[in-house]
Structure formats: structure tokens, C-alpha cells
Hints:
Blueprint: H1 11-38, H2 43-61, H3 67-74, H4 78-85, H5 98-113, H6 128-135, H7 142-152, E1 155-157, E2 162-164, H8 173-198, H9 218-246
Antiparallel strand pairs: 1-2
Amino acid sequence: xxxxxxxxxxxxxxxxxxxxxxxxxxxxxxxxxxxxxxxxxxxxxxxxxxxxxxxxxxxxxxxxxxxxxxxxxxxxxxxxxxxxxxxxxxxxxxxxxxxxxxxxxxxxxxxxxxxxxxxxxxxxxxxxxxxxxxxxxxxxxxxxxxxxxxxxxxxxxxxxxxxxxxxxxxxxxxxxxxxxxxxxxxxxxxxxxxxxxxxxxxxxxxxxxxxxxxxxxxxxxxxxxxxxxxxxxxxxxxxxxxxxxxxxxxxxxx
Length: 254
């Protein structure tokens, strides 16, 4: 058989790898889902940002790829990629969030048709039930929408109906601060993983660790960074030596 000939791989051989891959991405997806749900945000926000991230990273790492090749790599429609690269809004990514859309209409209806600021829950328009029937017919019951908006703190319920307490469907500041810290740590970890994956086997690998404080003034932080960097580099070298001493050449890699 010629050296360049390729023997097709047995599908049974790849089945365990595929199953393992599915388990891995489910863990990754659930991790992202927990973070998104922790600040009461819908899936559309994450999916839009995820698609944009795929395109941005491909464009930076492989700038010679054509739009068709990027589409094959990401699974995103070519027209959507083309629109995004032209900095145009992609309609399929910009569908309004259902809760945000309903809240905006409730707010508009109260301002226009309810002088006392109270919207009835049931009955003919103007009412929450009528709004749901108009905007999401057959999809969401008014009581489910009511419970969700109460949970989010956007409305309060009285004997006569509902009143808007906050017209903005958005996470609270403390939730965003926590999310920012969490995502920053994950971003640093992902960069470390990517560096280690691309670094030659014989080279020094990085490991990830994060420390932070929320009460250091900016002017102190600027002076503190060089000292921390020097101390951390010394610590990294010490840990690397400890790991090297503990390695056993008889143990198979991985």
C-alpha cells in the first residue's frame, strides 16, 4: 500500500471519543448556563455574544480565512458572518428578549391607558392578559409572566392589579460586579489553557491562580502591581521546581 494511502477510520473507534466530547461540552455549557442564569439573563444574549466571539477569534487567529471557510468552522450562516464583519446588526441575533419586550409594553400601556398607574391582570385590554395574548399568543400565560416579573423585582401586585417598580430588565449592580469578577477569572484561566495547549511539550507551562481585592484605590494598585508581579514570578518558579522534583519519568504522560 502506498505510504500516502489513508485507511478509513472505523466508526466504532471514534464513538467513544464522540461520547467523551459530548460530555465535555455539556459540562462547559452548564457552567456558562449557571453564570448567565445567576444574573437573570436570557439565552439570546449569550448566544449572540458566543457567535460574535467565534468570528472574532477566527478572524484574529486566521485572518486569511474566507467567509465560507469561517462558516464551515463555526456553523454560522455565511450571510450572518458577512453582516457582522460589516458591523451591521444581524437580525437573527437581535431578537428582543421576551421578558424585556413584555415589560416594555406593560410600562407603555400603564403610561398611556392607566392614569392610576395600575394595570389589571386579567380581562380585556388594557390588561396583562391582553398584552400576553397580543405579543406571545399561545406561548406564555399571563400568570407565568406575572410570577417572573415579580421574581425579578420589576413589578408589585396589589388587589387592583400590577404596578411597575422598575421598567428596566437588567441585573442589579452587585450581580454585575460578581459576574465581572467571575468572568474575568474564567477569561484568565481560558488564556492559560490555550497557552499550555499551544506551548511545545518541553517548554515551561503556566498554571492559573487568581487573587483580588475590591477595596484598593487605583493609585495604590498602580504601585502595588510591580511588587506583586515580582513576588508572584518568584512563587511560580518555586512551585515549578517543586512539581519538577515530584515528577516520575516512569509515569506515562497524561
